[in-house]
């Protein structure tokens, strides 16, 4: 598997952990076994990567089998360079060690040829959202488009607006959360606001208030793992139905009430700005109705 780095000054182990969605110990073992090359050389887990570096992962996994699978896809827009897809609830975006089937990538591979910048596990994937977060994603169909879209995302030029239902009544009409996010020292499977974390900024606006919940609109300046879920938990308004950060009784098993509603970007070829919108899914609106 070959990957091209799009970030600056990020540790090799941290990058691979997030990229492959595996534990740090698994990454460390792969590096010690010399299954990871950076620019053709073996290196240490703490090596600092920069944009443009090339990583090759030669991990022997007998279960690995990234195949195209027939899947119902909600394609919002498509041309020869880009696909905008409205991801359904419960669908993992891309394969990872131990989970090579039934992901969005498997379905997309059955639909079209995708870029291979991010290697076999993440073809075409420029950015991702959690399995139980629904909404819009942009996918690149060739390497040139992928590089341009990834640069736009890294330079914070991509427009992303989310809608979430959170517990509690938020008194302020608008707000800004500026709190660094990193791996939780109490639970390494979770993210948290930590002093030495990466800079993370979330803007929100109240859309409607209910008896014990608030419907809000959110925009991200940064794209940290679980950013909205972590930030809303941090201000004591966790996302409704979030099984990890919710701290409340789960209403059902359909996943957190978080939807990537709008997506905007400059087309990599035409250079025209494009913006897309999507409706809240049934799994979200059904819970919303119970709280009204």
Notes on the structure:
With 292 residues, the chain is of the alpha+beta class. The protein has three domains: 2-57, Roll (Structural Genomics Hypothetical 15.5 Kd Protein In mrcA-pckA Intergenic Region, Chain A); 75-158, Pseudouridine synthase (2-Layer Sandwich), CATH 3.30.2350; 161-259 and 286-291, 2-Layer Sandwich (Pseudouridine synthase), CATH 3.30.2350.10. 19% of the residues lie in helices and 28% in strands. It is built from six helices and 16 strands. It has helices at 12-20, 24-32, 104-111, 143-154, 227-234, 282-291; strands at 2-4, 10-11, 36-38, 48-49, 54-57, 75-78, 82-87, 134-140, 159-167, 174-178, 181-183, 191-193, 201-209, 213-220, 258-266, 273-277. Strands 6, 7, 8, 9, 10, 13, 14, 15 and 16 form a nine-stranded mixed beta sheet that branches. Strands 1-5-3 form a three-stranded antiparallel beta sheet. A hairpin with a 7-residue loop joins strand 11 and strand 12 (191-193). Helix 1 packs across helix 2. The longest helix has 12 residues, at 143-154. The chain is globular and about 60 Å long. 36% of the residues are buried. The model has no long low-confidence stretch (mean pLDDT 90).
């Amino acid at each position: 598997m070959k990957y091209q780095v799009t970030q600056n000054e990020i540790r090799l182990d941290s990058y691979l952990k997030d990229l492959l969605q595996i534990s740090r110990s698994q990454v460390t073992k792969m590096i010690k076994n010399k299954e990871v090359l950076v620019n053709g050389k073996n290196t240490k887990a703490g090596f600092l990567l920069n944009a443009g570096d090339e990583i090759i992962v030669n991990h022997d996994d007998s279960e690995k089998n990234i195949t195209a699978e027939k899947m119902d896809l909600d394609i919002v827009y498509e041309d020869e360079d880009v696909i905008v897809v409205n991801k359904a609830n419960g669908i993992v975006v891309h394969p990872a060690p131990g989970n090579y089937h039934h992901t969005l990538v498997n379905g997309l591979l059955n639909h079209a040829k995708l870029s291979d910048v991010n290697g076999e596990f993440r073809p075409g994937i420029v950015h991702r959202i959690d399995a139980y977060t629904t909404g819009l994603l942009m996918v690149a169909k060739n390497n040139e488009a992928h590089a341009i879209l990834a640069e736009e995302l890294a330079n914070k030029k991509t427009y992303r607006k989310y809608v979430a239902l959170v517990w509690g009544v938020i008194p302020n009409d608008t707000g800004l959360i500026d709190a660094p996010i990193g791996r939780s020292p109490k639970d390494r499977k979770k993210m948290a606001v930590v002093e030495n974390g990466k800079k993370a900024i979330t803007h929100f606006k109240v859309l409607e208030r209910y008896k014990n919940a608030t419907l809000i609109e959110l925009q991200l300046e940064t794209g940290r793992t679980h950013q909205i879920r972590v930030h809303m938990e941090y201000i004591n308004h966790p996302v409704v139905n979030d099984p990890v950060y919710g701290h409340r009784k789960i209403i059902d098993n359909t996943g957190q009430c978080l939807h990537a509603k709008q997506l905007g970007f400059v087309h990599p070829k035409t250079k025209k700005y494009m913006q897309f919108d999507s409706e809240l899914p049934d799994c979200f609106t059904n819970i919303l109705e119970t709280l009204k």
